[in-house]
Amino acid sequence: MAIIDITVIPVGTETASVSQYVADIQKVLEQYEGDIKYQLTPMSTLIEADLAELLKLAQLLHEVPFNHGIQRVCTNIRIDERRDKEHSMEGKLKSVKEKL
Length: 100
Hints:
Strand content: 25-35%
Mean pLDDT: 95
Number of strands: 4
Radius of gyration: 15 Å
Number of helices: 3
Number of domains: 1
Order of helices and strands: EHEEHEH
Protein name: MTH1187 family thiamine-binding protein
Organism: Pallidibacillus pasinlerensis
Strand order of the largest sheet: 2-3-1-4
Family: Belongs to the UPF0045 family.
CATH class: Alpha Beta
Largest sheet: 4 strands, antiparallel
Low-confidence stretches: none
Shape: elongated
């Protein structure tokens, strides 16, 4: 399993608010519930799944603002993948909390 941290940034919106685009992206993710795990944060969305699936999903999420008429979109993606042991979003948090 891998985890991506993704931020989709529509450029040229009518207002400074992008919450509607974020909501639309969350609606896309809801369609994949059961196949992926995801968590909305104040600055991005974390998604856990197989890396190949995550990369396909990242492209779908990148398209969301274009589907609403935006002409430019910048998407930032960070990928965390371990191959020496299984890891998850919950496991990463648990590990830190155990050390506190």
